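Its record is retained below.
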Amino acid sequence: RKQSFVVSLMFKAYFKEGRDLGDIEVLADIADTAEMDAALVTRLLATDSDTDDIRKRDAHSREMGVSSVPTFIIANQHAVPGAQPPETWVQVIRDVQAQIEAAE
């Protein structure tokens, strides 16, 4: 994933270079620098074609209980917010294993 790299590029563009992150060309340039498809980014930002998909994803995340970052979604069923102790992860893994075994 390129998320961290793109975020770094955006911070640099805005805070160090004074570039306008509201400008589609600036964002396409950042995408190109991150070896992303700048033409696709330009097309997506120029329309609302993916708005419904984004809203559905947002609604799904909220229904799963996502309200903070980071939140880990496990087996598309469990939302585990923030940093957790190992014991919590062990319990989540056991719960998922039990559900898988019960479904078999």
